[in-house]
Write a structure and sequence with these properties.
heterotrimer, A mainly alpha (249), B mainly alpha (72), C mainly alpha (256), C: 256 residues, mainly alpha, 80% helix, elongated
């Protein structure tokens, strides 16, 4: 226990986080590249076509991982905000700050691919499908967090306000999701939801699993990398950063 | 292999525009995120180095002028 | 306004001589300090808002105006209007409630009384709750009472008027509570108005779904009690959590 706590405490110090993340990051980049490459080739070229939707179902391999990630990133952003608010660990806030645009990008990917997928399945670019609607609301939540952080002139206030909003949002996400699902069933679903389908054969869901894992590794690697930049930016006047910069030239 | 030929693969059984648009936008965004993160890091490091260099040189010049004054 | 009660007591406790009856004047908490503080906040805010009548009336006028726009923009056909009336009334009421949110803490922030509120020994969450209650009393409740009249104008089918008013009364309470978080977060910002709606509107969606759903269910004759129960559950949840978020947000806005 003691060892774990001291490790967490060290992780909370920007200098240590910078050093540890440098060792972890390459592995996550490598894993992300390999998994996404394998998943893409498998999903695009080798997985069998769907009996109902033909080859358009191959959009699932980008739509679903992006949707998973969009929700997970919001949760991890709120957890980082909680850690920042309770234990005043600055690295947590730096991570939360770089997670928000990343999550918004993932939400956009899942919305865009969902809309494009709608053309061959529903015959229209936009359908007020339960999943697409919740994703759209999630995008607004992300934009709100990003805008609120940027609106404050003092960085610390912006960080704390964004943390509070992320926590309020994460409590609301399940409520929004269930109410939208309920609303959609009330107004009679058009045909069938894109992603809820009869059990998929292994050749179809194995690449999906690989893609999901690859996207998660990509998220971790990108977050680590941008958090490192954020550390350098905010700690630019600290001695260790100046020594680091001096050593490079 | 789900396709007979490369042409077949590109055509995606008539769904080419939808599949390739989704995958293209996703790929572009992922690559964009990586490139942006790299550019941000490089730019930051360059700026930090410039600051550090300026700080050390101004330190030296101020020492020199101080020394000259002493001699005068 | 009660801050000086606390501040005054500190030096006086030692400086003042003991009374004939043996108790220190000015010392000791008045009985039920929290109740007194909450009651005083309620009374003060009500008085202040009653003096600025236009601020109370504006959301109601806005509500009526928006409802007027829809038949003009869509069609005066009563049958068509009746089908969209529940949603229209609810969306318009929601926007009217949103419109009044920005001023919830604004004037207190500008004249410094919000800072005094922060300094009181009483929990800020409870005092914030009192302010939200006043906001609901003077915005949500009048909107709910006014909605049936506008419902007549939209040819809302009979039998759903009571449900409309009741669902709005329940729902706007949740809206005031959730909206107060956004108002507290943006009160320190000079141009917080648009940002406030961006923050708050996504969080309003569940209330809108079940509020409009209640009216629709009443029209179809399904009975709206399930929807109203869920609205009540949402209100209970926001009553439990929102005051703490409001208090934390106010602290951030004041100290930042």
């Amino acid at each position: 226990m003691g060892k774990i706590w001291s490790f967490i405490h060290k992780l909370g110090s920007p200098k240590w986080f910078y050093a540890i993340s440098a060792r972890l990051m390459p592995w996550f980049w490598l894993a992300a590249a390999v998994l996404i490459l394998v998943g893409s080739v498998w999903g695009l070229a080798f997985a069998p076509a769907d009996y109902q939707q033909g080859n358009s179902f191959r959009i699932i391999y980008v739509h679903v991982p992006a949707a998973f990630l969009a929700q997970s990133i919001f949760v991890s952003m709120a957890v980082a905000g909680l850690i920042f608010m309770v234990w005043k660990i600055k690295v947590a806030d730096m991570a939360a700050a770089v997670m928000a645009p990343l999550g918004a990008a993932m939400t956009f990917i899942s919305l865009f691919s969902g809309a494009v997928w709608g053309v061959p399945t529903w015959g229209t670019w936009w359908m007020w499908d339960a999943r697409l609607t919740s994703m759209l609301i999630l995008l607004f939540l992300y934009l709100g967090v990003i805008a609120l952080r940027g609106a404050f002139s003092s960085r610390d206030s912006g960080s704390r306000a964004a943390s509070v909003l992320a926590m309020v949002g994460v409590i609301n996400i399940p409520i929004i999701k269930y109410s939208v699902d309920w609303w959609y069933t009330l107004h009679q679903p058009a045909t069938f939801s894109v992603t809820s389908r009869p059990a998929m054969p292994l050749e179809m869901w194995a690449p999906l699993l690989i893609m999901v894992l690859g996207f998660y590794c990509f998220f971790i690697a990108a977050t680590l990398m941008r958090t490192r930049s954020e550390i350098l930016r905010r700690e630019a006047n600290k001695r260790w950063v100046r020594e680091l910069a001096g050593g490079l030239s | 292999m789900a396709f007979d030929s490369f042409q077949d693969f590109l055509a995606m059984g008539g769904h080419a525009p939808y599949v390739w648009a989704s995958w293209g936008v996703t790929g572009a965004l992922l690559v964009g995120i990586v490139l942006h993160a790299r550019a941000e890091r490089r730019q930051l490091l360059r700026r930090l180095q410039r600051h550090e260099r300026r700080r050390t040189t101004t330190d030296q010049t101020s020492h020199q002028t101080g020394g000259q004054r002493h001699e005068a | 306004m009660f801050a000086w009660v606390g501040e005054d007591r500190m030096p006086s406790a030692d400086a003042r001589p003991i009374d004939n009856d043996g108790r220190k004047t000015g010392g000791g908490e008045p009985g039920g300090g929290l109740v007194v503080a909450v009651w005083a906040t309620l009374k003060r805010d009500l008085t202040l808002l009653m003096r600025r009548r236009s601020e109370v009336l504006n959301p109601l006028v806005f509500f009526a105006l928006v409802i007027t726009l829809f038949p003009i923009g869509i069609s005066p056909d009563p049958e068509l209007l009746a089908t969209i009336a529940p949603g229209l009334l609810w969306v318009a009421a929601l926007l009217a409630a949103l419109l009044s949110l920005d001023s919830l803490f604004r004037s207190d922030y500008e004249d410094g009384s919000l800072e005094q509120l922060l300094l009181t020994p009483q929990p800020l969450a409870m005092l914030g709750l009192a302010k939200v209650a006043v906001h609901w009393l003077l915005t949500g409740l009048p909107l709910a009472l006014m909605a049936p009249v506008l419902g007549i104008m939209l040819a809302l089918p009979a039998g759903s008027y009571l449900v409309l008013a009741f669902s709005l009364a329940l729902g706007t309470a949740s809206l005031s509570l959730i909206g107060a978080i956004g108002a507290a977060l943006t009160v320190g910002l000079s141009r917080g108005g648009v940002l406030l709606s961006l923050l708050v509107l996504p969080l309003y969606i569940p209330v809108l779904i079940f509020g409009a759903g209640a009216v629709q269910a009443a029209i179809m004759g399904d009975g709206a009690s399930a929807h109203l129960a869920i609205l009540g559950a949402l209100l209970a949840l926001s009553l439990m959590l929102a005051p703490w978020a409001v208090a934390a947000s106010l602290r951030i806005s004041i100290n930042g």
